[in-house]
Specification:
The protein is an alpha/beta fold. It contains 14 helices and eleven strands. The longest helix is centred in the C-terminal third of the chain and has 35 residues. Bound molecules: pyridoxal-5'-phosphate.
């Protein structure tokens, strides 16, 4: 493609994108396709000769959008939102054009220095103490894996990387039963193993039972295990569970354990001072992950990983063959030494565009609205005699069940309800299992959501439950 083509097709793509966003709310939220519907439209082998951009673009228009679940749809209430604020989409286009590989300062000085600044802007936005530095990881899963490796190496006095885990004391890590599956996966990848992730039950508040945590650690020490760290749950995916950060940090201090706080979703709300009481004691945590790529509005992939002692992370992950060394400069950051992957995208640009284009006040207004609208919807559903609120709103997440009082089996009935709602297409919801019961999650958090979207959700949920199930 020559230069003129690039200009023409970039403009076509920009026009398509603007039209897509303007008409998005007319589409069904969840893709209305069955497995294989898209694959059967794609050639089985790559072309030997170049095809025209006209043909490629028209295939894109015809095949792809209708096979997508629309994450930027204002009535996306499933999982946790993966927002992409329009200003960030533009930043992504620019980052894609620069196409820098940002592994070292010398390979991307502007990207590296902007990343240092953006992590600090975010730190201030969340009101974390100055003691936290950090980096933008690709995902919360990656940040948690990094923290898990630090826990392991710190406890083993950096013998794990050198000698492997065979013959070492068995490392133990603690977390509540409400933590995200990325914690389990981190244990597998770090070679610690699922059985050495000690899942502590939660108390009435759905936060970790701190006394059980304390005694589990003591008992493990007596049994010859090596306690290494605690992962604190701050807004669990299922129903939004939150641990008592201050109390868990006290236990960690008593036991000299490393703490990592998973605030992948709920952390974004900490830009609002009135919610910060939820994480009282956060200044005592060793590392924190918050996903601006969820609620805040930055597109995938962008996880802010704040760390009090980056030296521990660097000691765990830094590897510098000659070809990665930089000579004759000082005071630089090579962020590939802070993460699992070597090559990395220019992530900071989209954070810069977001924070400047909307301002913290603009972002706070959105989050506050989501919380209020979720609470109002929960109250409306609670007034219906044939529904129950299963778990109360935590910020903008609550769960409910349809409970009509006839002889239909409730787990099956609520799975049918989610399915019928998602086939209807006006809203998108997902279910979870809470204490053995299938409940339906509602999360408000889409960047362009309006209060009327919550009203539509109410109508759809109630009408389909009462009239649309067999
Ligand atoms: N932690 C929590 C609480 C989550 O909800 C999620 C994803 O939804 C993750 C971690 C994993 O996030 P990521 O997709 O960035 O790895």
């Amino acid at each position: 493609m020559d230069e003129i083509d690039f200009r023409e097709w970039s403009e076509r793509a920009a026009t398509w994108s603007a039209n897509y966003l303007e008409t998005l709310s007319d589409r069904p939220v969840k893709a209305q396709v069955t497995p294989g519907d898209i694959a059967c439209q794609i050639n089985t082998s790559p072309p030997e000769s170049a095809e025209s951009m006209e043909k490629i673009f028209s295939d894109f228009e015809e095949i792809i959008p209708n096979g997508m679940t629309h994450w930027q749809h204002p009535r996306f209430f499933a999982y946790f939102q993966g927002n992409a604020a329009p200003a960030c989409m533009i930043a992504e286009q620019l980052a894609g054009t620069l196409a820098a590989q940002c592994m070292l300062w010398q390979t991307s000085p502007a990207a590296t220095e902007l990343e240092v600044k953006m992590v600090d802007w975010l730190r201030q936005a969340f009101d974390l103490p100055k003691a936290f530095q950090g980096t933008l990881q690709e995902s919360a899963s990656a940040a948690t894996l990094c923290a898990t490796l630090v826990m392991r190496e710190r406890a083993l006095n950096w013998a794990g990387n050198r000698f492997g885990l065979s013959g070492q004391k068995q490392v133990r890590i603690y977390a509540s039963s409400q933590t995200h599956s990325s914690i389990d996966k981190a244990m597998w990848i770090a070679g610690i193993g699922q059985d050495n992730l000690v899942k502590i039950p939660t108390g009435d508040s759905l936060g970790i039972d701190v006394e059980t945590l304390r005694s589990a650690i003591k008992q493990d020490r007596e049994n010859g295990f090596l306690p290494a760290g605690i992962v604190i749950c701050f807004g669990g995916t299922s129903i939004g569970a939150i641990d008592n950060v201050e109390a868990v940090c006290e236990v960690a201090k008593e036991e000299n354990l490393y703490t990592h706080l998973d605030a992948a979703w709920a952390g974004s709300a900490m830009i609002c001072p009135e919610f910060r009481n939820l994480w009282t004691g956060v200044e005592n945590v060793d590392s924190v992950v918050i996903n601006p790529h969820k609620w805040l509005g930055v597109p995938q992939e962008c996880s802010a990983h704040f760390i009090k002692e980056p030296e521990l992370l660097i000691k765990t992950l830094s590897i510098q063959p000659e070809y990665l060394k930089t000579y004759n400069v000082e005071g630089i950051y090579d962020f590939s030494q802070w993460s699992i992957q070597l090559g990395r995208r220019f992530r900071a640009l989209k954070v810069w565009f977001l924070l400047r284009a909307y301002g913290l006040e603009g972002l706070r207004t959105r989050i506050r609205n989501h919380v209020v609208w979720a609470q109002k919807l929960a109250a409306r559903i609670n007034e219906q005699p044939d529904f129950e609120i299963s778990t109360k709103p935590v910020l903008s997440l609550f769960s409910f069940r349809y409970k009509p009082g006839d002889d239909r089996e409730l787990n099956e009935l609520n799975l049918q309800l989610v399915d019928a709602i998602n086939k209807d297409g006006r809203i998108y919801l997902t279910q979870t299992n809470h204490e053995g019961k299938i409940v339906i999650r509602f999360v408000a958090g889409q960047f362009n959501m309006a209060e009327e979207d919550a009203d539509v959700a109410f109508e759809v949920i109630v009408n389909i439950a009462r009239n649309g199930l067999s």
